[in-house]
Write a structure and sequence with these properties.
Strand content: 5-15%
Helix content: 10-25%
Distance between the termini: 22 Å
Largest sheet: 4 strands, mixed
Radius of gyration: 17 Å
Structural class: alpha+beta
Number of helices: 5
């Protein structure tokens, strides 16, 4: 949903993607909102786009918008959850590189190596496993 520069660069301009529902409710389906700024918790965010109506994300309740991880301090300024190793707020979901099996990813430690990025190389407090979630059939 976000480019690596938008997602991992805390110095980049804060951006969001609106849910289709919020776009209809709050912005009257106006396509002109893309590129405009909106205020969230006193911070300006540029609207990158609007999610498709059938896109619901990964949670049971569809949020009103999606924002990069690095905007967490603007979203919840009272909590530094990005640096709190004991926090349970983040679930990481990723795709395995084409041609790599689930067992292969686990055996090579790909998941643990990726987790090291989030923990600055320190041993995580949680077990990290590669698990199947959804199979996508391409035509």
């Amino acid at each position: 949903m976000f480019s690596s520069d938008e997602d991992w660069n805390s110095n980049s301009e804060p951006v969001i993607v609106l849910s289709h529902s919020l776009w209809v409710r709050r912005f009257n389906s106006d396509p002109g909102v893309v590129g405009e700024t909106v205020r969230i918790n006193g911070h300006q965010f540029t609207v990158l786009g609007v999610a498709r109506q059938d896109f619901v994300g990964t949670e049971p309740q569809v949020p009103d918008f999606w924002a990069p991880l690095t905007t967490q301090p603007q979203m919840t300024p009272a909590n530094d959850e990005l640096h709190d190793r004991g926090s349970f707020w983040l679930q990481v979901i990723a795709r395995i590189k084409p041609g790599v099996s689930l067992a292969g990813a686990q055996a090579r430690g790909t998941v643990e190596q990726s987790w090291g990025f989030f923990t600055n190389g320190r041993k995580p407090k949680r077990v990290v496993k590669a698990l199947p979630w959804l199979k996508v059939n391409s035509k």
